[in-house]
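Review box. Two proteins, two foldings.
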Amino acid sequence: MSVVIQEDLHRLAEILEAAKDAGAAYLKELPDRATTSHPGVLNWPSLPERGAGALDTLTQFNHLFYPYIVASSGPRYWGFVTGGGTPAAILGDWLSSVFDQNAQLSTGIGDASALLEMQTVTLLLELFGLPENFMGAFVTGATMANFTGLAVARQWAGQQVGQDIARDGLRVSIPVYSAAPHSSSLKALAMLGMGSANIEIIPTLPDREAMDVKVLLEKLPADPTQPFILIASGGTVNSVDFDDLAAIARIKQTRTCWIHIDAAFGAFAALSEKHAHLLTGWEMADSITVDFHKWLNVPYDSAMIFTRKEHAVYQVQSFQNSAAPYLGNPWEQFSYLNYVPENSRRFRALPVWFSLMAYGKAGYRELVENCITLANEFGSRLLETGYFRLLAPVRLNTVCFQPDPQTTNGLTIPALLNELNQDGLVFMTPSVYKGESCIRAALVNYRTTAKDIDIAITAIVKTVEKLRTLKTASPK
C-alpha cells in the first residue's frame, strides 16, 4: 500500500472532518454565492510523482478551484431545472460514497442495497399516487430514464411482430409519435438505433405545448393492430404543459401501443391538490420518467424509470447480462443489472430514502406548493415592471418570458442574460417557445423564498435600465 494512502487512513477522521467543514462552509454561504463564475485560464498543476495526501490536496483545491464553484444548488439558480440537496439527502449521498455499494441483487448476496432501492420505489409510488403494478429502477437522469423506457418499448414493439430486437437487431420500422418531446427523448431514439428523426411530430393545441390528440388519432397507423410508441409530455420543459394523458390512455383500448410519459419534474404536480388533475391517466402508462435531482432536491445524479411489472420480460430481454453466467438466472434471482443499462450502479436510492423519510409527503407537498406560488409571483412581478411579457401562463413552476421591445428599446435576450449573469445574483437560460426566443426560469429549489424573488426582480430591472441607458447614449 502507498505510504501516502497509509498516512491518510491514519488521519481518516480528520479528513472527514475537513470535508464536513468544507461542505458546511459552502452551504452556509450558498444564498449569497454567485450563480455564475468566470475562471479564465487556470494554472493547473501537473500529475505529481508522489501525491500530497488528502488534506493538502483539499487546501490546493480550495486555492485553485473552489472560488469558481457556482451556487447551482442555491435558491436563485433557475436554469436547467436544477434542485438542491436537502440536508437529509446530502447525508444519504455522503453515506452512499462511504458505503460504496454496487446496488444490484435483492438476495443479499454481495450486498443488500437493492432491498432498500425496492423499498424506496414503494415510497415513491405512494408519493406520486401511482399503483403498485409499476416497478422502478434508479438511473443517472432523465436521459437514461427515457432511454431505458424506450428500449423496453422497442423490444415490446418488436415482439408484437415476432422480432427479438435486443438479440437480432432492429429489422423493423417502429412508428413513434410525440408533440413536444424533450431533447433527451430524441437522443434516446438516436442511441437506440431508431433514429432521432424517425418520429412523427404531432401539432400542438393553439397557444399550447400540449398535443392535439384529434390530429394524433388521424395520423395513427391504418391497421389498429400495428404497434407504435407514443411519447407523451408530463410537463414540457418550457411551460410545463401536459398532454391530455387521460385521452391518450384511452387509445390503449383500441390500439396496440406503448405509452411512455416523460414527467421529469412534472410528476411532482401529483403532490399539489390544485394541479394533480394534470396527471390524470398517467397510471395507464407503460413507462414513466421522473428526475429526482430536480424537484425532489437530491444531489446529482438521480432519476427513475417506472415500468409496468407486466413488461418485465421485455425489460430483461433488453438489458440481461446473458454472457455472464456467474450472475445467475435473472428469473430466479432478481438483479437490477438485468433491468437497466448499467452494471455498475451507485447506491442512488440512499439519499432519496433519507430525504423521503426525513420530510415525508407533507414536506414535499409544501416544497412543491411553495415553488408554484413563487413562480406565479415572479411572473406577476415581471409584468409589473413593464419591461417584459409572458409567452405562456405560469402553469406550474416555470416562467417563460421575453423583453417587451417597445419598453426596452429592442433589448435582446442574449444581451440581457449576458449582462445579468455577470453579477451572478440569479441564473436563467435562454429557450424557444412556439418558435419565439425567450428566457425560462425554473423554480425547484427548496431554499427559494420570496426574498429571492425580490433580489431577482431588482437585479433584472437594474440590468434592463442599464442596457437601455447605454443604448440610448451610444451614437447611431
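Next protein.
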Amino acid sequence: MRGYSQEKLSQLSGVSRNTVSTLCSNTEYVPSGSIMQKILKALREVDPSVRADQFWDL
C-alpha cells in the first residue's frame, strides 16, 4: 500500500518477514511498541505523514 513489498519492508525496518506478514494478514494483531516504531520509521521514508493510528487501533 505504501510502495514496499513485505520483503522490502522487512529489510528496511529490521523486523522479521514473519512478523511483517502477520501485520499484513491479521488485523487483530497489535505489535509491541518497538516493532511499531521500526515499521513506522521505514514507512515514513516513503510517506512522512504516516501515523500509527492508520494501521493500529491505539
